[in-house]
Specification:
Length: about 70
């Protein structure tokens, strides 16, 4: 299902927004992610998932993106 959405969006050249907490979805679909932080009521980090895994300023962002993918 996730792969289908990704291929469909790329094939049609459209952008779509997907809200998820599932890392498998993030890595299989997203070219860019935006992580929200409810404590500041705003954006905590944004960028390519692979870049954020290593370079995010906030430690919790790196920890979240480096969890085990089930």
């Amino acid at each position: 299902r996730v792969l289908f959405r990704s291929e469909l969006a790329r094939g049609l050249g459209i952008t779509f927004v997907m809200v998820t907490h599932e890392l498998a979805s993030i890595y299989s679909v997203a070219d860019r992610v935006v992580l929200l932080d409810p404590r500041i009521r705003g954006i905590a980090a944004q960028g390519a998932p692979s870049w954020l895994r290593e370079h995010a300023v906030q430690p919790w962002v790196r920890q979240f993106l480096n969890r085990e993918v089930a």
